[in-house]
Amino acid sequence: MAAGPEVGSVVGDFTLPGGELVDGAFERRDYTLSERRGGPVVLAFYPGDNTAVCTKQLCSYSSGFEEFAELGATVWGISPQDVDSHEGFARRHGLRMPLLADTGREVARAFGVSAPGIGLRRSVFLIAPDGTLHWKHVALLGATFQSASTLARELAAFA
After folding, report:
1. Angle CA(130)–CA(107)–CA(2) in degrees, nearest 5?
2. I need a surface site. Which of 3, 36, 59, 79 has the fewest CB within 10 A?
3. Could you report the per-residue pLDDT of 67-124, keeping only the tens digit for each?
4. Kind of pairing, strands 123-127 and 133-138?
5. For the chain, how big is the Rg over CA atoms in Å?
6. C-alpha 42: how far from its chain's center?
7. 55 CB-near residues (< 8 Å, 6+ apart)
8. DSSP H or E stretch at residue 57
9. Residue 119: which residues within 8 A CB-CB, separation 6 or more?
């Protein structure tokens, strides 16, 4: 497993398909990290749609959406499921952030979070407006996740 980007290094660019619930419609498009330069980005890698801990994690981040927005941060959820699965997950739980499909786990491998058996490790990367990695957390077991308030506190340090 690759180590992934180190804090202080520039994060490599990527583009993934995904979608976002907007006024009841699930809008599909490609998401490119470099297009978010100039503002902070939260990348939340999670193992699977509609699983207990992942649902709790993404619902928590969706509930904290205003706090992220006040800090100017974009939040993307990334998992190996396809966009159709993401649409069902977003609709079922009213998720308010884009969900990106890393079906081949190329991005997960680049970030060092691809894991045999589970697909990927639950992890969060906070990227500064200049494209450098400011903070990261990679879970060993994946049964817990970083809270929205922890992420907001870390974002406030550079947002």
Report:
1. 95
2. 3
3. 999 999 999 999 999 999 999 999 999 998 999 999 999 999 999 999 877 778 899 9
4. antiparallel
5. 14
6. 6
7. 89, 93
8. helix 52-63
9. 47, 48, 79, 80, 105, 108
Strand residues in the chain grouped as ranges (E):
15-22, 25-32, 41-45, 74-79, 99-101, 114-115, 119-120, 123-127, 133-138
Q: Name the nearest CA neighbour of 135 among 11, 32, 14.
A: 11
Q: How far apart are CA 108 and CA 110, in angstroms?
A: 5
Whether this model's pTM surpasses 0.90: yes
What is the pLDDT, as a whole number, of residue 118? 73
Say if strands 15-22 and 99-101 run parallel, antiparallel, or are unpaired: antiparallel
Catalytic residue among 11, 16, 42, 54: 54
* Beta carbons of 155 and 126 less than 8 angstroms apart: yes
